[in-house]
Amino acid sequence: MTSLIPVGISGMGRYVPERRVPNAEFESLLDTSDEWISQRTGIHERRYAREDELTSDMGAAAAREAIADAGLTPDDIDLIICCTVTPDYPFPATACQIGHKIGAERAGGYDLMAACSGWVLGAFTASQFVATGAMRHVLVVGVEKLSSVIDFEDRTTCVIFADGAGATVFSPLEFAKRGEYLHGSAGMRGGTEDILSIPAGGTRLPASAETVAKRQHFIHMEGRQVFRFAVNTFADLVRKCVEGHTLDDLGLVVPHQVNMRIIESAASQVGISLDQVFVNIDRYGNTSAASVPIALYEAREAGRLVEGKIVSCVAFGGGLTWGHVALRW
Ligand code: UT7
Fold first, then answer.
1. DSSP H stretches of helix in 182-320
2. How far apart (Å, rounded) are the C-alpha atoms in residues 259 and 276?
3. Is it the case that residue 312 has pLDDT exceeding 90?
């Protein structure tokens, strides 16, 4: 095999829907309060897409920005990996809709479903294609319209999940000049669908009047169990990112925006301060596969990505799945 080509991030984009939904809006729907939501999750508001705004519309908006940021045109994109659990259709893949909307005529594409770990595993995958020379420019889109699968009668989930999109172009480092891909990982534990899933609509429980009546097409989550898994996995993944380095080499952790208490507990387990962690959950809630690429984009905008330092992207979620991508900025 020929030697691997160093890989970097050549462009980033983000799209968040216009509609802001403050915690107070839930007070009239359910037995909850702004105080409970902000104290237990760190969320103050989130964004919801319009009814006619599709997952692919949000993904395409973020993708256009990422491609322009890279100084490329849609024609330069070889592959689109769309990471989502809220596709436009069960099939075809939302990657095809995004490719069509942005005019990426040459690109291949497919969806990657790994829930909240989606973008991280997509980034890990994209980097391998570029590193081997099989592809030159790979677009990874993390996008969700979770407002379409939220049960607004379930106060334990509906206040958490939200909509948005982040997109990243992976290219040879000599072209990208920044965001060098160092290494990544992927993990999973099956048999856990009882604690985080949309129970119906697949082959196990095809859609029927009964599944609709039982509200089984909405997200179901055993929050406490996911909480424990998330804290431990988060900490392990950050340690993996800095293996062979010291914590001084760590510039910023850009984690899945899951819950402020989870972020605080994991940071204290690893022994880093919250200044070394990027947080925007207060403004966007949990946008699943979109959360890390939106956060990475905003971390760059805020000047938080320090040249030469390690950026640790870590995520975990339904599957259960988890993964990391370590970058050097
Ligand atoms: O992205 C990956 C997937 N998601 C996650 O990783 C989420 C992980 N889990 C969490 O973030 C937290 O577990 C939640 C935010 C979901 C819940 O927080 P918690 O502190 O674990 O609450 P709990 O489930 O232990 O519930 C405590 C109480 C319960 O009442 P009782 O049984 O003690 O009377 C809940 O019914 O809080 C109640 N509760 C609420 N109260 C007001 C749950 N949701 C709400 C709410 N408003 N929205």
1. 209-213, 223-241, 260-270, 281-284, 291-301
2. 16
3. yes
Average pLDDT over residues 204-211: 98
* Averaged pLDDT, 292-304: 98
- Please list, residue by residue across 14-28, b when 16 or more beta carbons sit within 10 angstroms of its beta carbon and e when fewer do: bbbbeeebebeebee
In tens, the pLDDT along 249-277 reads: 999 999 999 999 999 999 999 999 999 99
Q: Which of 163, 179, 195 is the last residue of a domain?
A: 179
| Active-site residue flag, 137 | no
Pocket of ligand 1, candidates 40, 152, 196, 286: which has the most ligand atoms within 8 Å of its Cβ, to mutate?
Answer: 40
- Give the integer Cα–Cα distance in Å for 81 and 69: 18
Residue 102 has pLDDT above 60, yes or no: yes
Q: Determine the structural domain holding residue 11 and report its residue range.
A: 7-179
- The one catalytic residue among 82, 137, 158, 256: 256
| Residues 33 and 125 grouped into a single domain | yes
> Is residue 39 included in any domain, yes or no?
yes
Retrieve residue 136's tokens: 């030159």
Report pTM: 0.97
d(Cα 291, Cα 217) in Å, to the nearest integer? Answer: 22
Count of the separate structural domains present in the chain? 2
Report the CATH number at residue 316.
3.40.47.10
Whether 87 has a pLDDT exceeding 60, the answer reads: yes
Residue reference for tokens 């956060």: 295
